[in-house]
Design a protein that fits this description.
Layout lengths: L3 E4 L2 E4 L4 E7 L8 E7 L6 E7 L4 E3 L7 E6 L4 E6 L8 E11 L2 E6 L3 E6 L1
Parallel strand pairs: 2-11
Antiparallel strand pairs: 1-3, 3-8, 4-5, 4-9, 5-6, 7-8, 9-10, 9-11
């Protein structure tokens, strides 16, 4: 089972930027997609951005235009660049790996990294 370790979270002022990293314990090319989700207090976990094995990204409307997801297969790492941060971006951000096989679809999660945006 893959281990996902996030880093890069922290406290930032509104309008600032952060780059989150997710390092996987094995080759991420094995996974159909890698992504970032977030969960704010009292809210459900939601997709922020996802990137397929082929490198195609998609973004939640709430971050479209001010975030970039990328992957470095050689480093088994996925990044999420967050710009023009808003207080409503405050959440725990989780890395996700999706594996689709004949036996089903499997989701793997990291422990999360806290992002706090002050106004």
């Amino acid at each position: 089972q893959v281990q996902l370790v996030e880093s890069g979270g922290g406290l930032v002022q509104a309008g600032g930027s952060l780059r989150l990293s997710c390092v996987a314990s094995e080759n991420i090319i094995s996974y159909n997609s890698m992504g970032w989700f977030r969960q704010a207090p009292g809210k459900q976990r939601e997709l922020v951005a996802r990137i397929t094995r082929a490198g195609s990204p998609n973004y939640a409307d709430s971050v479209k235009g001010r975030s970039t997801i990328s992957r470095d297969n050689a480093k088994n790492t996925v990044y999420l660049q967050l710009d023009s941060l808003k207080p409503e971006d405050t959440a725990v951000y989780y890395c996700n790996a999706v594996l689709s096989s004949w036996s089903g679809v499997y989701n793997y999660w990291g422990q999360g990294t806290q992002v706090t945006v002050s106004s």
